[in-house]
Specification:
single chain, mainly alpha, 18 helices, about 75% helix, globular
Length: about 500
């Protein structure tokens, strides 16, 4: 038993927990299954791996700026994060092994479900979120069943997580088809709740054709805003410099000294904005590089291992479709969140901590999906909804994790809040020994959903086949009617022809 546990933990830590390795191995296997030449297989696997590495380098560059941005904003607003008796580090120390086992077992169950049910369609491949969803799930289970042993937590958590990984790309599919009509890959990110709400709320506010963010006509003097790198650098730098102006000088000087002791705080603020823009540019380049390899390579799995399946990938994979919408969503979400921060602090409700990384990815994604529904208005609506979800969610969920890892409420995406409150709502029903109902209900509901979707898909295919057959028959009949006319009517030779 210990050997199996060690193997599963190793896979979780060194494969599923390392996104470049996971993507590289999947690309390698997909190309081998297609029997590509050795040099093409090796090069494709390495390009996919390097693309993911570049993506994460970009994330590191701009998240470093976001951390400074967050610290200065919080200081300028005169707020500090709430204190907690327990920390995330303590929780990971206590439950890290359990979380690793949940990731591995859940992925195996997820693969099995996708293989058994063709309607599942997508294989969830966002490695870092596989870790965080497992962490949130284990923390929620520990909250409602504090006496559960490790085996119970692993099996119950894995069943729920596998169900989430299977269903989440499916409920995002209608919106994703507007972004990616060819259905090359699915969306695997825990911002899906904000994106879904945005998609429904934005419907009455216009359409993409008229108001698409990428087709906005700007005055010649403002045309530089069409360059996403320029607009990002300008917007973030301006916000950063305003925050520097209102923040405590000692705090800003200390942060600036971490980059360069001789650096002026104003120049530091400008550099933070420029580094943010540079990080986004690097991120988008890495996305394009690894998508160019993983999508065609995944055809090997789709043809031979899991017929008809596609990869479900991280949020940045869709950002190149409408980068202006991404920035519009991020900026509007930041404004809304900061407004909530001031209101909550003044009312004495809660001291919010600006989660700049979550605001960028969640609101950026919601802005993009809002854009495909209602253009720039949808992008703004996506940002507003994301800002509200992240602000309210942080305030009401902090206490929910007070006995496990309260920081999860600050680091959270919208789906994390949904999972936490789902378990809290079910606590009176499934608390204690009844915790085993979690995987049973989750996987049972997943199977039922996939069976219904499968039947609908077969019915649709049958209907399309009948319509195609009827169209062919009508075309054939029309051709037969025209034939006599071509002969001059009644089959007689046309004028000028020999009898």
């Amino acid at each position: 038993m210990d050997i199996i546990k060690d193997i599963l933990t190793f896979l979780a830590d060194n494969v599923f927990g390392q996104v470049p390795i996971l993507i590289g191995l999947i690309t390698l296997a997909g190309l081998l299954l297609q029997r590509k030449r050795f040099e093409d297989t090796l090069a494709g696997a390495l390009r996919a791996t390097i693309g993911v590495v570049i993506l994460f380098i970009g994330i590191e560059v701009f998240t470093g700026g976001l951390s400074s941005f967050q610290a200065v904003l919080a200081n300028a607003m005169g707020t500090e994060p709430p204190k907690a008796e327990r920390t995330l580090d303590q929780f990971l120390t206590a439950q890290g092994g359990t979380i690793a086992l949940v990731i591995t077992v859940a992925f195996l169950v997820h693969v099995l479900v996708v293989r058994l049910f063709p309607a599942a369609r997508y294989l969830y491949l966002t490695g870092h979120l596989m870790f965080w969803i497992s962490t949130v799930t284990v923390a929620s289970l520990v909250t409602i069943a504090p006496d559960a042993d490790q085996l119970t937590l692993v099996l119950c958590g894995a069943g729920f997580v596998a169900a989430y990984w299977t269903l989440q790309p499916l409920w995002m599919r209608p919106l994703m088809r507007k972004v990616m009509p060819d259905d090359r890959f699915g969306y695997a990110h825990t911002s899906s709740l904000a994106a879904l709400v945005t998609g429904y709320v934005a419907r009455p506010f216009g359409d993409r054709e008229k108001h698409d963010t990428e087709k906005l006509k700007l005055p010649r003097q403002l045309s530089f805003f069409k360059d996403i790198n320029v607009s990002t650098a300008l917007v973030i730098s301006v916000i950063m410099l305003i925050a520097v102006a209102f923040a405590d000088k000692d705090v800003v000087t200390k942060l600036a000294a971490e980059m360069d002791p001789k650096l002026s705080p104003w120049v530091w603020g400008l550099l933070v904005g420029l580094r943010f823009a540079g990080g986004i540019a690097i991120l988008l380049f890495g996305v394009r590089m690894f998508l160019a390899e993983i999508v065609p390579a995944f055809k090997g799995f789709s043809d031979r291992i899991i017929p008809g399946t596609r990869p479900a990938l991280d949020a940045p994979t869709v950002f190149p479709v409408a980068p202006t919408a991404v920035m519009l969503g991020f900026v509007s979400a930041t404004v809304v969140f900061l407004a909530c921060l001031g209101v909550f602090a003044a009312a004495g409700w809660f001291t919010l901590a600006p989660p700049m990384i979550m605001l960028f990815f969640v609101a950026g994604a919601a802005g993009l999906f809002g854009n495909v529904v209602a253009g720039w208005r949808g992008a703004v609506i996506g940002g507003v909804i994301s800002g509200l979800i992240l602000a309210i969610g942080q305030a009401v969920t902090w206490g929910l994790f007070d006995k496990t890892a309260p920081e999860l409420a600050t680091l959270a995406d919208p789906d994390w809040y949904a999972i936490a409150w789902l378990f809290k709502g079910l606590d009176p029903i499934i608390g204690g020994a009844a915790i085993w109902a979690v995987p049973v209900v989750a996987l049972g509901a997943t199977a039922a959903t996939l069976l219904i979707l499968g039947r609908r898909e077969k019915a649709r295919e049958a209907r399309e086949a009948v319509e195609a057959m009827e169209a062919a028959e009508q075309e054939k009949a029309a051709g037969q009617e025209k034939a006599p006319e071509a002969d001059g009517g009644g089959g007689k030779p046309a004028a000028g022809q020999n009898a």
